[in-house]
Write a structure and sequence with these properties.
about 475 residues; five-stranded mixed sheet; mainly beta; disordered N terminus; Immunoglobulin-like
C-alpha cells in the first residue's frame, strides 16, 4: 500500500518573473524566491502552495434562502458595472448576480443547493463550478448545454463537502464583448471551528483600455493597464483586534495570472486548499502562491500593536503592490492571550489511502496545439473522452506541459493528490487546480468515486491564451 510521505516538500509552480535560488543548509534542499521592489517573497516548496471587518470583506456572496437542508439560489447573468477607476463605478462588465432575498445564510456540508439561472445576456452562457465534486447534473458542456439568451434553467447540487467554492460564467467568455466576475460560495462544516471572523478575500484581475473599458480574456491586451480588485474594490482596510482569529478564504479569481499574496507581520497558517482540509502548516514569511481558480483557507491571529497597520501585498510576477491593509484597532484585546494553534479542519471524507499499484495510468499533454483539446465553443459531447474509468478505480494522470508558458490544469468532478517525483507517495493535501511549468511533468492521482461525464480545463498563463477543454468518463 502506498502511503503519503508527509516529510516531503511541496512542489510549486512559479509565476513569471525574476527568480533566485538558495540552499537550505539544514535540509540540503533548494528554495526559490521572487524579488521585486525590494520585497522578498520566499517560495519554499513546503510552506507555499502548488498551483496555489468589515462588510466590505463579504464580496458578492450569493444570498441563499434555506428550508430544512435545501437551499435555493437564484442567479441572473446580466450586464452590470464595476468601479475600476477612483470614485467611478461605470466600467461595463457581464455580471452574475443573485436575486434571492437578502438573507446571509450559508449552507453546511450535506445540504442541497437548488440553482435557478436566468440568462439576460445577448449571448449563450453556462455556469462553471470550482470545487464541487460529484454533481454530474451541474457539469457544464458535458451535461448542461449553454443557456440561450432569455432562457431559464434549474438544477440541484449536492453539497458533499465543506469549504469555499466558486461559480462563474467565464467558460464561454474568451473574446466576448466584456469580462465577467466570479461568485464565491461558502459551505460550513457540520462541526464547530474556533474563529472570531470568517471572511472571503476574492482577488480578480482586469485589463483596462485608455478609455476605461475592460477587455475580456482571450484577446490581445496591447495598450491596456492591469488592475486588481479585492471583493470588487481597488483597496481595502480590514479592522482587527489584538488576539482576534480571522479565517480568510483566499480565492484567486484572476483570469489567467498566478499570483503571490504576502501578509506582513503575521503568521499565516494554511488550513485548507481547494476546498479540502490540509495538514496545517505555516506559510513561510506569510506568503501564499495561488494559481487561477485556487482557493486557500488560512487562519491569522491579529498580533500587531494597536493603531498600527500591516500591508497585504500582491505579486503578479512583474511587481509587488499593496492591495489591502490589516488595521489594528485601539480597542482592548478580544481576549487575554492568543488562541492555541488550531487543530486540522474536519475531514470531508476523502480517502486516506490511494492504491497506486493497480491504478489506471493516463498521459495527457498540455500546452500549445495539442490533439484532443478544444475551445469550449467547439466542445462536442460526441467526441471521444480523454479516458474512461470504472467507479472506484484509482486514476493517475501524467500531465506534461509542452508549451513555453506555465499551464493551469483544472479537474472537474474529483479532487486529486499531487504525487511525489518517484511516485512513492503524495503531498498531504488535496487539490483540484495545478500550475505546471514549461517542460515539466506532474503526476496526480484520484479515486474515481463519482459516475458521470466530467470536464478538464487548461490554459496558459497569458491573458490572450485560449481556455481549452476535454472530458473524461466514469462509468
Amino acid at each position: 500500500m502506498r502511503t503519503p510521505l508527509r516529510s516531503k516538500k511541496m512542489a510549486i509552480s512559479k509565476p513569471p518573473g525574476k527568480y533566485s535560488r538558495r540552499l537550505d543548509i539544514t535540509t540540503g534542499k533548494w528554495s526559490a524566491s521572487i524579488m521585486a521592489d525590494g520585497i522578498f517573497f520566499p517560495l519554499d516548496r513546503r510552506e507555499l502552495l502548488a498551483g496555489l471587518g468589515a462588510a466590505a470583506l463579504s464580496p458578492a456572496m450569493p444570498r441563499i434562502a434555506a428550508a430544512q437542508g435545501r437551499f435555493s439560489l437564484r442567479l441572473q447573468a446580466k450586464t452590470g458595472v464595476i468601479g475600476l477607476r477612483p470614485g467611478v463605478a461605470n466600467t461595463p462588465i457581464w455580471s452574475l448576480l443573485s436575486s434571492t432575498p437578502d438573507r446571509d445564510i450559508r449552507p453546511k456540508r450535506g445540504d442541497e443547493l437548488e440553482i435557478t439561472l436566468l440568462n439576460e445576456l445577448p449571448v449563450p452562457t453556462v455556469l462553471n463550478w470550482h470545487g464541487i465534486d460529484g454533481a454530474p447534473a451541474a457539469e457544464p458542456l458535458a451535461a448542461r448545454r449553454p443557456l440561450l439568451p432569455g432562457a431559464r434553467e434549474s438544477f440541484v447540487i449536492p453539497l458533499r463537502h465543506a469549504g469555499i467554492f466558486t461559480c462563474d460564467h467565464r467558460l464561454l467568455g474568451d473574446g466576448q464583448a466584456q469580462p465577467s466576475r466570479m461568485l464565491p460560495l461558502v459551505v460550513r462544516e457540520s462541526e464547530a471551528v474556533t474563529v472570531d471572523r470568517d471572511e472571503v478575500f476574492l482577488i480578480e484581475d482586469w485589463r483596462l483600455r485608455p478609455d476605461g473599458t475592460a477587455i475580456a480574456p482571450g484577446t490581445d491586451p496591447k495598450e491596456t493597464t492591469p488592475l486588481y480588485t479585492i471583493n470588487g474594490l481597488t483597496a481595502l482596510d480590514i479592522p482587527t483586534r489584538t488576539h482576534e482569529r480571522l479565517r480568510f478564504r483566499f480565492i484567486n479569481g484572476c483570469q489567467r495570472n498566478v499570483i503571490a499574496i504576502k501578509i506582513e507581520q503575521h503568521d499565516v497558517r494554511v488550513m485548507a486548499l481547494d476546498s479540502q482540509p490540509a495538514e496545517p502548516f505555516l506559510a513561510r514569511d506569510g506568503a501564499l502562491v495561488l494559481a487561477p481558480g485556487t482557493r486557500v483557507d488560512a487562519f491569522i491571529d491579529a498580533a500587531v500593536p494597536p493603531g498600527s497597520t500591516s500591508s497585504i501585498l500582491l505579486h503578479d510576477g512583474k511587481e509587488a503592490r499593496p492591495i489591502a491593509r490589516l488595521v489594528a484597532s485601539k480597542e482592548p484585546p478580544i481576549r487575554d492571550a492568543a488562541l492555541p494553534a488550531p487543530p486540522p479542519l474536519p475531514s470531508n471524507g476523502l480517502p486516506a489511502q490511494l492504491d497506486l499499484k493497480s491504478a489506471l495510468r493516463i498521459d495527457l499533454t498540455l500546452g500549445g496545439s495539442q490533439a484532443g483539446w478544444v475551445t469550449p465553443a467547439n466542445f462536442a459531447g460526441s467526441a471521444a473522452p480523454a479516458f474512461r474509468a470504472k467507479p472506484g478505480r484509482i486514476v493517475v494522470l501524467a500531465l506534461t506541459n509542452r508549451g513555453d508558458r506555465s499551464e493551469v490544469f483544472h479537474l472537474h468532478g474529483h479532487h486529486f493528490r499531487l504525487l511525489d517525483r518517484l511516485d512513492d507517495g503524495w503531498k498531504p493535501f488535496w487539490l483540484d487546480t495545478l500550475a505546471i511549468e514549461p517542460g515539466q511533468t506532474q503526476r496526480i492521482a484520484f479515486a474515481a468515486a463519482h459516475a458521470g461525464r466530467w470536464l478538464m480545463e487548461t490554459s496558459a498563463t497569458a491573458w490572450a491564451a485560449p481556455r481549452l477543454v476535454r472530458w473524461y468518463s466514469i462509468e
